[in-house]
Amino acid sequence: MLTKAIADKKQAATNVALCSVHLMGIYENLTSVQRKGTFLAHNQGANAMLQLRTVEEFYSDIISARLYEVIYAHLLLGNLQAARRPQIPTRDVVKVDELLPSLYKNSNAFVIRLIWRAAMLHARWHEIKQSPNPPTNRMALQELLQSALELESDYEAWEANVTPAWNYHMTPNTPEARSTYDAKLQKLFLGCPGAPEEIHIYPSLKRVWIWGFYRTSRILVLRDLLEMLNWMLRFRDPCLSFRPQEAPGQSMPTALSNANLRTHHSVATARLVEVIEKNCSSILGSFTVPIDTKSATDICGMRGYICIWPLGTMDSVLSSGLVPDSNAGKQPHSATHLPTPPPVHSQPHLATSTSNASSSSEPSTALESYEAAPAFSELRNIRTKSQSGQSPGASPPSNTPLLDQNAKKNHIFDPNPAHPYDHPLDLPPLDHGVEPRRIDIAARREWINRLMYYMATELGLKKALWCPVMQGYMPTVKPMVDEILSQERGF
Question: pLDDT tens for residues 199-223?
């Protein structure tokens, strides 16, 4: 029926056809075992169908406006995950602002303009890292750095000024607070190593999802910002070679000085830790917020579906070395040490399996991204580091090294392999810097992967298995979760 509908130009431009394609894409992303790659096809199909109507036509009635809103949000999420530029141009985003101003006011938390800018920044930064002519000095990155700083400032301002109507309830994660929850949720989410220090409670599942989308996109902005600063700190400080007598009338380039960049780095790191903590505190809210017609014991897949991308993105960032570790320099926990993850291998056959499903020529990184991950049955083909025979890379050359396009990604939620300059430098603390909170990286990553395994096994979200399997957490989290679930079932 859908094939016939989209073949007719008039029917293809209806809400029914667009909603059907979108829901099929969600279904494929929820399961994605037998029909690998079809999520991309439906996602791209929904994007093509959005082009059949003008923004004015979509916002002519409330139903099509809401449909446009949610599908465009999913498309932006896919752009963020694959580090691709948003396919809907800026002029359409501006039109939406004119047609529905409340979309961008604090009375409505769907901050699509901020997230559109985040997707554009994320794509631009990855394009630079993959360039055959990468930057060799700080001036070359100044404009992008300024864009990142302004965007992060706008993210900060939005949250600081959000109206009470979009607030949520926060409570410390104490034994008294935990006792009000089901025993299974206590063991999985709250009373275990790595659990967040707070519990966030939301009035609706949509509110949970919007806040998660906002925070996770902001985490990517902060990660990009820190990577840019790490690159720039590897280049020579322009103040060291500046001679006022040779350039009369010019001010010293202090904006790109070591002191300035390190101050930005300190603030961005502190904010990254804060946003990660809030994002973790909100995960339980997805599983406790009331859903019409659903009982508390009827855990539907959508509760976990909206958490997979935030959890996977946070696990990727925590594994990057950008977050201060409370156990740095200490012996690892006996029960919660970081496992050695196998490399994330690309899947050459995947491009063949999905090429017939899409007529657009997407970059190969899109086919290797999380949304197009191979079926669960193929996990047996993953090789460990020892099996792959890879040796550690050589030290970066004195000039800016090129990104190895054939290198293996460190994490399934990374859009591309890491560049040698992404990682932080070992710098002494600033005299007046912001001291960020530290996170127990080992315990928090175990907490994240335990939840991912639970969502995969209990909710049927098979894609959630990719994180614990490929990061080496299955031997740790599987027996933990299986024991909790067996206790609840009385086995």
Answer: 999 998 888 988 999 999 999 999 9
